[in-house]
Design brief:
cytoplasm; transferase; 6-stranded parallel sheet; binds 3-phosphoglyceric acid; 15 helices; about 35% helix; 2 domains
Length: about 400
């Protein structure tokens, strides 16, 4: 795939799709990692003398009232601070104002236009990749740089649609994500250990299958472990359970043999709350009326031993309900174990586990923290990402 270094930038109007879909609370950005990760491409384009037009989606825009809380204005402000250079915010997604603001850009200047999903209010034009919209946005620039890895699993007008109409190349972040995740799944240094958590087997089934065929060990945690327990005939009490996936879990375990590891103990609670009564019990001894909310200390120890030996680690999904402080120890323990491995490539596949690692202060201990949630999962499943495939369309 061509990258931003393979095209002429100087004096060109460069359209750049970023993923600025950042978490907001009361209009404040609570985690700016996705903005920070886009800086290398932005800085490169500006230093090469490009006229830079940035855009992104933010949240899901369903009704007129969403516009107020889903404006990208706070992102323009944060970006201005991070760049140390004014990022002009244009509160439009099309039209004369936007077009003249783009024409007024000098080389080395940058603007950000409004949330691409504002176009969803009128027939889901962005999310359904309306061909007219992709064509229109493409008409605003000379070349298209897609750096929005986090959105690469979506086939939308602002990525796939533009790529169909204009020369489209990858930015540094997209390139880096594909390299780290791609090497891990296609050419890992071994042992390759994958550690997967999260609430539901159904969300992760294809990732588990795909990684079982590639990794040397797959360690399971989180709510989905209990569906596997059920398949083993264990009592799971009130723990999260997907009855309709028990058979599937059974088949997976049979195929995987000793490659697949399940938690050997759990922290169980008598209620789904941080203040519930809790105790640690072995895997096959969850009492009736209790539910597993975290993996126990013996599991953390066992998983840490596997992780210590690894040369490649991919982690996706928390080990328990880590939003509850009293049930976060499993996730913290695993995070620490991965952060402390020497000489391994350690990758977090985005989403909750990325947030957990950052908030624990381990962000810089990992080789790579993906900016993609859904996108990294789909990539790990072995699926082609439509926005990446579209880079060669024109
Ligand atoms: C994400 O946060 O996973 C991406 O920005 C995509 O967002 P979406 O799930 O709303 O399409």
């Amino acid at each position: 795939k061509k990258t931003v270094e393979d095209i002429q930038i100087k004096d060109q109007t460069v359209l750049m799709r970023a993923d600025f879909n950042v978490p907001l609370k009361d209009g404040e950005i609570t985690d700016d990692n996705r903005i920070v990760q886009a800086l290398p491409t932005i800085k490169y384009i500006l230093s090469e003398g490009g006229k830079l037009v940035l855009f992104s989606h933010l949240g899901k825009v369903k009704e007129e009232a969403d516009k107020e809380k889903l404006t990208l204005r706070p992102v323009a402000e944060r970006l201005t601070e991070l760049l140390g250079q004014e990022v002009t915010f244009v509160p439009e997604t099309r039209g004369e104002k936007l077009e003249s603001a783009i024409k007024a850009l000098n080389p080395g200047e940058v603007l950000l236009f409004e949330n691409t999903r504002f176009e969803d209010l009128d027939g889901k034009k962005e999310s359904k990749n309306d061909p007219e919209l992709g064509k229109y946005w493409a008409s605003l620039g000379d070349v298209f740089v897609n750096d929005a890895f986090g959105t690469a699993h979506r086939s939308h007008a602002s990525n796939v649609g533009i790529s169909a109409n204009l020369e489209a190349v990858a930015g540094y972040l997209l390139e880096k994500e594909l390299k780290f995740l791609g090497d891990a799944v296609n050419d890992p240094e071994r042992p390759f250990v994958a550690i997967l958590g999260g609430a539901k087997v159904s969300d992760k089934i294809n990732v588990i299958k795909s990684l079982l065929s590639k990794a040397d060990k797959v360690l399971i945690g989180g709510g989905m472990a209990y569906t596997f327990y059920k398949a083993k005939g264990y009592n799971v009490g009130n723990s999260l359970l997907e009855e309709d996936r028990v058979e599937l879990a059974k088949n997976l375990m049979e195929e995987a043999g000793d490659k697949l590891l399940l938690p050997v103990d759990n922290v169980v609670a008598d209620d789904f709350s941080n203040d519930a009564n809790s105790k640690v019990v072995p895997a096959d001894e969850i009492p009736d009326g209790w539910e597993g909310l975290d993996v126990g200390p013996a599991t953390v120890e066992k998983y840490a031993k596997e992780l210590e030996k690894a040369k490649t680690v991919v982690w996706n999904g928390p080990m328990g309900v880590f939003e509850f402080e009293n049930f976060a120890k499993g996730t913290i323990g695993v995070c620490e174990a991965i952060a402390n491995i020497d000489g391994a490539t350690t990758i977090i596949g985005g989403g909750d586990s990325a947030a957990a690692a950052q908030s624990l202060g381990y962000g810089d201990k990992f080789s790579h923290i993906s900016t993609g949630g859904g996108a990294s999962l789909e990539f790990l499943e072995g699926n082609e990402l439509p926005a990446v495939a579209a880079l060669d369309n024109k």
